[in-house]
Amino acid sequence: MRSLALSVPPAPRLLRSERLRRAAQERAVWLADHAVRALIAEALLTPKPALVDQRGPGAHQDLDLERLLRSAESLRGSFQSMALQARGAVADLQLREKLGAIGRHAERRMLSATGGSNAHRGAIWVLGLLVAALAIAEPGEELEKIAAIAAGLARLPDRYAPQVPSNGSHACRRFGVPGARGEAASGFPHVLHVGLPALQRARLCGADETRARLDALMAIMARLDDTCLLHRGGRPALNAAQAGAQRVLALGGTSTAAGWGALLALDAELLRRRASPGGCADLLGACLLLDGVQSAGAKEQPWNA
User: Fold this and answer.
1) Of the CATH numbers 1.10.4200, 1.10.10, 3.40.1000, 1.20.1270, which one belongs to the domain with range 20-158+174-300?
2) The pTM is what?
């Protein structure tokens, strides 16, 4: 008689390992998609004072909407890699340095996509940290906890980061402001306690999504010491931006005729100064990422296997 080979079912441990691997991959793809969506939504939002939008390049000479959108899409794989590295990891120095290496690769991809223009260097830092924190945290975690994880990573040194001063770091030293690194290390206060509340308040008051997002941008701009503005126009440009944004909000936000007029006046003033609030735009992108992830809820989010 022929011996019949017995079929041995896969070991339960292997099955569970494969489920976890697939769940991590699905969540990384999902988080990267939300990060890219946030950057695209920020780019398309119009009108933004002196920023690239659907009207034109704003105060920029080396950027336009097409390049900004190409840059956003070029970062999808890097955000996915950050999420995969972070999923199941401890937020320690080893992870920080892995994320730093991925971030530098993302910058090279961005520069290739834009022909050498810096479209999203700040956003890679801001959204990259938040994507990693979202991957570490359990789905549905409180935003304060996610920001705290990101802050912990931001405070860790990266031994392999090139010691090349940036425009932002020059502005931080010259004007004594925290900049993007300080914002991250503090737990993104202008995202959690300024931008997101303004976005939610505007929606509750009946604003459409464009005006709600513009109001969130104005709220951030009214309070943030934006190093992009400081680099391009010094304290006068920053003061003009903050005062103009405060005026928009004081007049009822962009949903009112007076507030809309003040927004356009602010746009003209910053264009005259050739000063663009790029740091505010990055933090608006962070708001849209966290808002999108939070709004997705249990129906859309990939959960652990």
Assistant:
1) 1.10.4200
2) 0.92
